[in-house]
Design a protein that fits this description.
Blueprint: H1 2-27, H2 37-42, H3 56-78, H4 84-118, H5 127-131, H6 137-162, H7 168-182, H8 190-207, H9 216-237, H10 250-280
Helix pairs in contact: 1-8, 1-9, 3-4, 3-10, 4-6, 4-10, 6-7, 8-9, 9-10
Length: 281
């Protein structure tokens, strides 16, 4: 049963993310009515754009730090249950939380860009085109090196969070490929690109797990990403009417650690109850 539930959630998540990625590629253009005009302009649903240290990206950084720290405290108090499924989930949870902290730091860089006057919105050109716009060759090289270094750190942390057992060499290669691919993605499609890569990496490795490893924790870990896959639809199509009233993109960033910890705590409760029943007999 857990095997079927988990598989269904992974397939539903993949369909939702694939549909979102294709739809943004086709319709995320200035003047299009399918997506919210404010979201198209910025690539995210951003509130309080002109308020230093308090726009959506700033708030994402603050909340990510607080929620990750809170999550780590819960993890520290619950980790170590001598059950194979929980041992694996311990590692995934730890790296997922740390990876999300890196995610928040990237939002901090974007927020700084707004404070420095670069928050005019998402440019509908690729990252490589934007980086090559500089007239000064030396400055252009520095911008490219900085971009590559920051994004390599971002992708490495993110991929380590969802693929903790992947060999360091393979993880590094995957991160490099993701960074290079991102160079050719338009600003407004940046989020869709990141979500698509993460979903492909996570669901593909989960679906091929042996049946005996697809226990309760497999089902709960699969349910979370599906919930997350729905939020970008709301953010991008109803930014001003719905998402902005709840912090804009902050909704998505808050949901990630919440989903991680709900899955972890639910699994811990399930296996601890199971062990207590076994001891009773």
């Amino acid at each position: 049963q857990h095997n079927i539930v988990g598989n269904v959630f992974h397939v539903m998540t993949s369909i939702s993310v694939l549909a979102y990625t294709i739809t943004t590629m086709i319709f995320a253009k200035p003047g299009n009515k399918f997506f919210d005009s404010d979201w198209i302009q910025h690539g995210f649903c951003v509130i309080q754009k002109d308020v230093p240290y308090w726009n959506s990206h700033d708030l994402c950084l603050y909340f990510d730090i607080v929620l990750v720290c809170f999550g780590l405290l819960i993890y520290k108090s619950l980790k170590g249950m001598p059950v194979p499924a929980m041992k694996s989930l311990d590692e995934v949870t730890l790296f997922s939380l740390l990876g999300h902290l890196g995610h928040g730091i990237i939002h901090g860089f974007i927020a700084r860009n707004y404070r420095e006057g670069g928050g005019e919105g998402a440019q509908h050109i690729s990252s490589i085109e934007k980086l090559l716009q500089s007239d000064d060759e030396e400055n252009m090289k520095m911008k490219i090196m900085k971009h590559m270094a920051v994004n390599l750190g971002f992708w490495f942390a993110l991929l380590k969070g969802i693929l903790p057992n992947l060999a360091l060499r393979k993880l590094s290669i995957t991160a490099i490929v993701a960074v290079i691919g991102g160079l050719f993605v338009k600003d407004v499609l940046g989020f869709a690109y990141v979500q698509a890569v993460i979903t492909i990496a996570f669901t593909s490795t989960q679906l091929v797990l042996p049946r005996e490893k697809k226990e309760f924790s497999y089902a709960t870990s699969a349910a979370g990403p599906f919930v997350l896959s729905v939020i970008p639809w709301i953010e991008s199509t109803a930014c001003q009417s719905i998402a902005a009233k709840m912090g804009g993109h902050l909704i998505y960033d808050v949901a990630i650690p919440v989903v991680i910890m709900v899955s972890y705590c639910a699994s811990w409760h399930h296996y601890s109850g199971k062990k207590m029943k076994e001891k009773a007999f």
